[in-house]
């Protein structure tokens, strides 16, 4: 006889406490496959939507550095001093003028300027030392000069030209909308907040620093969806610097298709997905991002996501909306349960770049999200609704602190939300069981670093973790398995309310090869993955073990073709933590391939 929620009515008021507990334990057993499926449902192959949008190879093979966004004039000699001139000048002291960044005492110490006898070439060396100090601190065109002067009382003047930007930028482009947008960005960044002059009007300029120029250029790229590069040159007035930005058309529509074998037998092992990004549909720097995927059993797993964002103002804010849906239906060993489910969500967000440089970036994202979750099986349905408020800070930094190039990624995410169960039977089960309904907090931390070791070698390490303040709905749990987790285990393996995941990879990038007029970059790696989860923050009567550990080791091959084609293949085996609970395998081969268009 088939049972459903209409034929299975329970009066909770008539149940004694022991009977309620017994019922909760019995129904929790029926919910176990549901929980497992929900862990997989919000993502494909263990990857988050952000990871899916980066493609199957989120880190470019063989490359961990970025190029400059602006051309800066080199330091030149201020005067054509005759190096053969042996004229000795008695000097009683020095005076520095024009400086606002560094104090006179600090500048004279850098120049080692003291009373004494000097040649002209030695004075020039002092000026170059001060110029070097400014350049080392990111002042792109700042310069110290020894101007022509009449030395009085033995005091020599050193003049500092710090290089203020002109009140207007020169934009070279045929796109008038882009030119207007770039002018607004320049004015917002260069002119002080207190100045209310319109773009193009006279305003106080800022000194040309790498941080300032990078922000202007990178915001111009984001807000116009064009290729933007800059150059600095002497301004029309003494002491001022002109920024010229060249904006060229960029492809409006880009896409990618990919396949992977990270699924499970019950929903289809092979996944295919398509990703399309359309830029400046409304000619204002807006972006439409579409992502869809399905398994080789289309009726068992499919998902869709649409994201739209647009710049607001000229200082870097973007507002956006996101809608997503995932559906699953369990087959094979779970067919008799007639288990299926769907998740739908709608989110609104605001994003702001706190730091925007060629080699570093930090973004703040604030969002609100609401959704529906529903899981059905032979016995009953479990419909829920939820909402979340989310604050996320993420960043990227390229450095050479250890004498070799390195790239760092990091992030922190805090979520406050609430889950509501909308059916009497699962409400009863939850209230007498794990208490997943109600308000919750969740904190997620993540970080990674790829460190160059010299030659073609590099070392990659990553660590992520999550902690909730209560027992969480399966949709919000942290899981270990999958191609972006412990690769020796299936996607969704070992999930919990708290957990951590770490990865170490030793990588070797081969010299790129030209094959049939195509440049192939190849990288191999040996890796070790390990993670643990606490299944429930507050386990039910401690009836079962509440902690799981998964570890694996293996080798990986990555091949890319000018970022157009990508292939990632790995073999991984468990490392002392037993076979996969979901499919019984001790090892697995993962294949992920993508093609951009």
UniProtKB/TrEMBL annotation:
<dbReference type="Pfam" id="PF08479">
    <property type="entry name" value="POTRA_2"/>
</dbReference>
<keyword id="KW-0653">Protein transport</keyword>
<dbReference type="GO" id="GO:0009279">
    <property type="term" value="C:cell outer membrane"/>
</dbReference>
<keyword id="KW-0732">Signal</keyword>
<dbReference type="InterPro" id="IPR005565">
    <property type="entry name" value="Hemolysn_activator_HlyB_C"/>
</dbReference>
<dbReference type="Pfam" id="PF03865">
    <property type="entry name" value="ShlB"/>
</dbReference>
<keyword id="KW-0998">Cell outer membrane</keyword>
<dbReference type="GO" id="GO:0008320">
    <property type="term" value="F:protein transmembrane transporter activity"/>
</dbReference>
<dbReference type="InterPro" id="IPR013686">
    <property type="entry name" value="Polypept-transport_assoc_ShlB"/>
</dbReference>
<dbReference type="GO" id="GO:0046819">
    <property type="term" value="P:protein secretion by the type V secretion system"/>
</dbReference>
<dbReference type="InterPro" id="IPR034746">
    <property type="entry name" value="POTRA"/>
</dbReference>
<keyword id="KW-0472">Membrane</keyword>
<keyword id="KW-1134">Transmembrane beta strand</keyword>
<keyword id="KW-0812">Transmembrane</keyword>
<feature type="signal peptide">
    <location>
        <begin position="1"/>
        <end position="37"/>
    </location>
</feature>
<protein>
    <submittedName>
        <fullName>ShlB/FhaC/HecB family hemolysin secretion/activation protein</fullName>
    </submittedName>
</protein>
<feature type="domain" description="POTRA">
    <location>
        <begin position="89"/>
        <end position="163"/>
    </location>
</feature>
<comment type="similarity">
    <text>Belongs to the TPS (TC 1.B.20) family.</text>
</comment>
<dbReference type="GO" id="GO:0098046">
    <property type="term" value="C:type V protein secretion system complex"/>
</dbReference>
<keyword id="KW-0813">Transport</keyword>
<dbReference type="InterPro" id="IPR051544">
    <property type="entry name" value="TPS_OM_transporter"/>
</dbReference>
């Amino acid at each position: 006889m088939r049972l459903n929620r209409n034929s299975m009515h329970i009066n909770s008021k008539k149940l004694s406490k022991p009977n309620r507990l017994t019922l909760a334990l019995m129904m929790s057993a029926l919910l176990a496959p549901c929980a497992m499926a929900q862990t997989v449902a919000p993502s494909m192959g263990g990857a988050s939507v952000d990871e899916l949008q980066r493609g199957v190879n989120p880190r470019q093979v063989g490359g961990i550095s970025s190029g400059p966004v602006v051309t800066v004039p080199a330091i030149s000699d201020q005067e054509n001093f005759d190096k053969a001139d042996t004229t000795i000048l008695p000097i009683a002291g020095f005076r520095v003028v024009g400086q606002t960044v560094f104090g006179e005492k600090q500048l004279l110490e850098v120049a080692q300027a003291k009373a004494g006898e000097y040649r002209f070439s030695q004075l020039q060396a002092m000026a170059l030392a001060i110029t070097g100090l400014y350049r080392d601190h990111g002042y792109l065109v700042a310069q110290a000069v020894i101007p022509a002067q009449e030395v009085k009382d033995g005091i020599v003047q050193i003049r500092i030209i710090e290089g203020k930007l002109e009140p207007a930028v020169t934009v070279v482009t045929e796109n008038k909308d882009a030119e207007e947008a770039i002018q607004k960005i320049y004015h917002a960044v260069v002119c002080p907040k207190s100045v209310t002059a319109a773009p193009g009007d006279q305003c106080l300029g800022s000194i040309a620093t790498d941080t300032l120029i990078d922000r202007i250029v990178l915001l111009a790229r984001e807000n116009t969806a064009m290729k933007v590069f800059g150059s600095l040159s002497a301004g029309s007035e003494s002491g001022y610097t002109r920024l010229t930005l060249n904006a060229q058309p960029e492809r409006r529509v880009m896409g990618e298709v990919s396949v992977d074998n990270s699924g499970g037998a019950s929903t289809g092992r092979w996944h295919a997905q398509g990703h399309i990004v359309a830029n400046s549909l409304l000619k204002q720097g807006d972006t439409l991002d579409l992502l869809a995927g399905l398994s080789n059993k289309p009726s068992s797993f499919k998902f869709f996501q649409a994201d739209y964002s647009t710049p607001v103002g000229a200082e870097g804010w973007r507002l956006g909306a996101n809608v997503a849906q995932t559906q699953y239906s369990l087959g094979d060993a779970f067919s008799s349960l007639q288990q299926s489910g769907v998740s739908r969500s709608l989110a609104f967000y605001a994003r702001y770049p706190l730091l925007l440089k060629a080699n570093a970036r930090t973004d703040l994202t604030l969002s609100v999200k609401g959704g529906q979750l529903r899981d059905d099986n032979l016995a009953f349905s479990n419909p829920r609704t939820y909402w979340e408020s989310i604050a996320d800070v993420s960043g990227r930094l390229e450095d050479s602190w250890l004498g070799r190039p390195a790239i760092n990624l990091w992030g922190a995410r805090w979520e406050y939300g609430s889950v509501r169960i909308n059916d009497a039977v699962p409400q009863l089960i939850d209230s007498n069981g794990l208490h997943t309904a109600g308000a919750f907090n969740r904190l997620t931390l993540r970080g990674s670093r790829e460190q160059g070791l010299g030659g073609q070698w590099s070392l990659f390490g990553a660590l992520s973790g999550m902690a909730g303040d209560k027992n969480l709905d399966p949709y919000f749990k942290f899981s270990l398995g999958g191609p972006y987790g412990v690769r020796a285990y299936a996607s969704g393996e070992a999930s919990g309310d708290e957990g951590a995941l770490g990865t170490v990879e030793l990588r070797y990038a081969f010299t790129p090869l030209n094959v049939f007029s195509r440049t192939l970059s190849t990288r191999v790696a040996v890796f070790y993955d390990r993670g643990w989860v606490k299944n429930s923050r507050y386990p039910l009567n401690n009836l079962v073990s509440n902690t799981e550990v998964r570890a694996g080791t293996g080798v990986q091959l990555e091949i890319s073709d000018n970022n157009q084609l990508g292939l990632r293949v790995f073999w991984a085996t468990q490392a002392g933590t037993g076979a996969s609970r979901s499919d019984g395998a001790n090892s697995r081969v993962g294949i992920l391939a993508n093609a951009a268009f």
